Amino acid sequence: MKVRGNVAVKERFYRLSLRLNGKGALAFSQVIPGQFVEVSLCETALPSVENIPDDLLDSSQRQIILRRPFSFCDVEVTSQADVRIEILYCVLGPATLRMTTLAEGDRLSIIGPLGNGFSVPDGKKLALLVAGGMGAPPLQHLAGYLKANFPKMRVVVFAGAKSVADLPFSVQSSDKNGHGISEFTRFGIESYIATDDGSAGFQGVVTECADRWIKRNRPNAAETIIYSCGPEQMLAEVAKLAAKHNIDCQVSMERMMACGIGVCQSCAVETRATGQTETVYKLCCKDGPIFNGKDLVFE
Ligand SMILES: Cc1cc2nc3c(=O)[nH]c(=O)nc-3n(C[C@H](O)[C@H](O)[C@H](O)COP(=O)(O)OP(=O)(O)OC[C@H]3O[C@@H](n4cnc5c(N)ncnc54)[C@H](O)[C@@H]3O)c2cc1C
Ligand code: FES
Questions:
Q1: From the centroid of its chain, how far is CA 43?
Q2: CATH code, 91
Q3: How many whole angstroms from 66 Cα to the centroid of ligand 2?
């Protein structure tokens, strides 16, 4: 597949756009939000030393042997033979650092789409999307997907981060009160921001922001569903919030993934089916990454 573009959107956040055609495009034309790809970056060059952040100077020298998992923030299907996918990524270590040097026309090896993706149970009329930090990309994809395929469904987004600089979205200047993330307003979707330091939107954790919204709006629980992606501690709080309001909840789990296809067993997630005492380990890459919040055993 070919790189169409790779632009910095904020410090450490980039959007990588890829174009697929032929069989690759066919495979991705039916992609579901929450699915992911395994990207090979072993042959991708490092940036020049002056472009490597100080905290990554040592780890940047690590060899990249394993592929890395990434979900999509946007997918545009022009035809079954022409698909564009966009990956929103944060530079955290040697692989994502190398990703920053990809340029238009470069070729990249990816495997996917992998995993199960989010689903929409019958009868749902309201979707609450709760994103924490870098959990945002698949929820951006989901928002667009819901608007296109379930036009009558109301979608409300809550996005949280330590500070506005850590939010991988474009915050509209009128946002001080928590409204208007460009990536969602373009679909006509209501959005709220929560930051730990109060630099934009609600000051506090995103689950508290969502909880207040639910208490204020009192949606019909049976017609509502929460979708979430972010750090595991936040997902545990989201699962509690959903249980408290008796709302269905699907969360996207993250694990280190060596193979991404159910072979290496490195991505175990502990689950417990309703009414059972025994726990069962499932594979994040194959049985997930999307799990029912009720079934997860958080530490
Ligand atoms: C299903 C899935 C979808 C993902 N989608 C995205 C995405 O859309 N955008 C994005 O920026 N990142 C995403 N990630 C995370 C991404 O795979 C890692 O950030 C990347 O592999 C880091 O590689 P690296 O070599 O740059 O850093 P590394 O040196 O490998 O990691 C840097 C730091 O991040 C932690 N880390 C790395 N990978 C994971 C992981 N899978 N789970 C928990 N902690 C991890 C490491 O412990 C380390 O502290 C996703 C992960 C999964 C499992
Ligand atoms: S990553 Fe290998 S089994 Fe899941």
A1: 25
A2: 2.40.30.10
A3: 11
Both 193 and 239 in a single domain?
yes
**175: pLDDT confidence band, cut at 50, 70 and 90?**
very low
Cα 264 to ligand 2 centroid, rounded to whole Å: 5
Give residue 162 CA to ligand 2 midpoint distance, Å: 30
Task: Let me know whether 139 and 82 are in one domain.
Answer: no
* Cα–Cα separations (whole angstroms), residue 244 to 80, 145, 214, 221, 249: 43, 27, 11, 11, 11
Is 63 a domain residue?
Answer: yes
Pair (33, 57) in one structural domain:
yes
Q: Quick check: CB of 137 below 6 Å from ligand 1?
A: yes
Nearest protein Cα to ligand 1, atom 45: 256
Measuring from atom 50 of ligand 1, which residue has the nearest CA?
Answer: 70
* Number of domains into which the chain is organized: 2
- Taken as a whole, the chain contains a residue count of 299
| Separation of alpha carbons 196 and 135, rounded Å | 16
If asked whether residues 45 and 163 sit together in one domain, one would say no
**CB of 117 closer than 6 angstroms to any ligand 1 atom:** no
Say which CATH number the domain at 216 has: 3.40.50.80
pLDDT digits (tens, 9 = 90+) for 39-68: 999 999 999 999 999 999 999 899 899 999
Q: In this structure, are residues 35 and 115 in contact, taking their beta carbons and an 8 Å threshold?
A: yes
Is 31's pLDDT higher than 90?
A: yes
User: pTM here?
Assistant: 0.94
176, pLDDT greater than 60: no
Query: Same domain, yes or no, for 36 and 78?
Result: yes
User: Does the beta carbon of 112 lie inside 6 Å of ligand 1?
Assistant: no
For residue 88, give its domain range.
Answer: 2-114
- What are the DSSP E strand ranges found in 29-153? 36-40, 68-71, 74-79, 82-90, 109-114, 126-132
Q: Are residues 98 and 145 in the same domain?
A: no
